[in-house]
Amino acid sequence: MSMILNMENDYQRFQKIIKGKIKENLRKYISNGEMIGRKGKDLVSIPLPQVDIPKFRFGNNGQGGVGQGEGEPGTPLGPGEGEEGAGQAGNEPGQHIREVELTLEELAEILGEELELPNIEPKGKKEIVATKDRYSGISRVGPESLRHFKRTFREALKRQVISGQFDIDKPKIVPIRDDFRYRSWKTITHPESNAVIIYMMDVSGSMWDEQKEIVRLETFWIDTWLRYQYKGLVTRYIIHDAQAQEVDRETFFTVRENGGTVISSAYELCNQIIESDYSPEEWNIYAFHFSDGDNWSREDNKHCAELLQSEILPKVNLFGYGQVDSTYGSGEFIDFLDEHLGDQENLILSYIPDKDAIYDSIKDFLGKGK
Amino acid sequence: MVVTQEDILAIQPEIEEYAREYGLDFFPVIFELVDYDTMNRLAAYGGFPVRYPHWRFGMEYDQLSKGYRYGLQKIYEMVINTNPCYAYLQEANGLVDQKLVMAHVYAHCDFFKNNFYFSHTNRKMIDEMANHAARIRRYMDLYGVDTVENFIDTCLSLENLIDYHSPYIKRRSNQNGKPQPASQRPVVKKLRSKKYMEKYINPPEFIEMQIKEYEKKMKTQKKYPPSPERDVLLFLMENAPLENWQYDVLGIIREEAYYFAPQAMTKIMNEGWATYWHSTIMTEKALHPSEVIDYAEHHSGTVANHPGRLNPYRIGVMLFKDIEDRWNKGKFGKDYEECDDLREKKNWDKKLGLGRQKIFEVRKLYNDVTFIDTFLTEDFCREHKLFSFAYNRETKRYEIESREFKKIKQRLLQSLTNLGQPVILVMDANYGNRGELYLKHQFESVELDLGYATDTLQNLFTIWKRPVHIETVLEEKGTILTFDGQDFKKQTIED
Question: Dihedral (C-alpha) A333, A335, A341, A345: value to the nearest 10 degrees?
Fold first, then answer.
């Protein structure tokens, strides 16, 4: 019997349905951190409600069955055991939620389609070409330091076996010139557009966990999108209260300070990082700042505006400022920026009062195709 | 060691011969070696190389592939109920695995051929499935892939609403196995007559009168169908306003549901039977001394007892062995049942040697429900540590409920009756004299899953095109769930 098994179509249609479901629910996923916890290196696992075909069937509770093993009446069964306990086809309660795995790339694609995000045109016509040496081949000549012992041994063994010099009782392998093998490399060049994101967050006493959660979600989606657009993406993290310092990702989301808020300290540090590490000609630079907008003084507001206008904005592709709801402050910074720098094309301001606003905020930040 | 197709062909006659010697009676078996990916595809398609296009096959394939990749499951073999019988063997199986699996396959095939519940299945189902696929592809060309696939979704949502026993009982006189569209149904039954006697035996005026009367009755009759219908799909085919292609698609889904039903109805027995025979053939005949360890490992995996779960392979084979033992020793009948002396009962042995004969008879006549009902004994439950479990609403977890024989048997039968699915009947196709469809869930003790029920009602509406209702019990109160095309309504029945 010839195997036909035209599974590809069915599989693709299933994938399409899943993606459709994710799209449908994207707003929920975006404002819901659940997914981030399930992120692996390249995959996210997404809990998807019911993709199966509904049927009249028994509900979960009240359903019992028969099992086998030790235990007294009242002994609890392990998690999930009861579900399959009845052991009969067509009787599988409790699978309303299905885990679907997507690559981050696919997720970004869906995000892009649903939010209608334009693809980013990398800055500068000049292409940055990266070269890399890859040890991918084997050759017969080369420096001794690159000699491939195993291959050499194998060649010698082969030759000795074929020519009858190999004695199984006295297995002695002596390579001759012809047997030597060396690792060889190829130089691979590929055009690369590098990008860096500098995240800044206000960690002063007035930023609560809820606000930080919003920032965490925002950064996840921004990361996902920009990583999809740029192959080499670097992220840097700055926290600030009255002073700014660079931290790692872990610290960025967990640390908590009690001091006041001097926003310019973060902008200065951000500028320094750009100056020293990322020349604007070679890098696509993104900076995002999240705060509750409760700056120390009006003077500092002005200082920030100057820094942005003369130093940062000319260097970056995009500067995003996201303002979360202030617990007890005035939250005036966003208005101040709007008033003074509202006409700057690569400055985007977004007000994010709650988790539901994240969806639109992402659209604000990334919708310009910068 | 890689086992090739040639190796399989070489050992096949040996295993087949053993199986025959033991009295197994099977269709010719064709073995095919397949890699794990092909096996997963086949399994997703229910064992058939060609099925109609539908996304759920892709979903099952996805699940199976993931299960395989994470090392959670591996399918050793797959065998389909056809004549000749096709059996697929996983090519990564070792030689001992292959021998075992082949013995297993012969027993499955014997079961397909001889068990009563398979007697009405189409043994040329490979062709029929391919035929279905071709028809559905043609409809997709004509009406669009999405339209047809969506309609299939709707039909599949109702595919379990069939009468699992109808192939074996004549419930309606005009049924003839195949449904007939409403318009072609003969209204008046004529008596048989020779041609020249026709107008005397079936006078045209009388026939005319009958038709008129019938039509009048149909018009005034409030209740249709006259008695509750269990084959909801058939009822829909005959009475719902369907396009021709929809009628055909619904028929295809129904036919395939009936084809697969006996496998679900005999899972415990079928697996038990196959396991019984692979262990018998292997240990008594086919196993070389050097292969014992490999065999033991595979076999113990097959019959492993996962705590808290019932392994159909295990319970089935244990029961068959128990039956064989009881009939060998004569542990049945009035004398045995009425014996009060436990020691005497334990040592009971009349040396009848009827065991083999009995299990062959059992595999011919029983299904899982009758099998458990007849042969599950108190001693067996005790010996094999069976328990019943239930969901405890207070602690919100599944707990061992009881070790009492009666309770265990009741739970087990409950999970097997109607394949562990709710029994649903068509009560009235003209509910409220408005052409609305009224179904009834025959409530036993377990409630319907409300979320699924509402979604299914919507699908039912898609087919019936008038409001649909289902009567059931929710939170211990009689309830009618209604979907009228837009809104969903839940209404408690007042006594």
Answer: 110
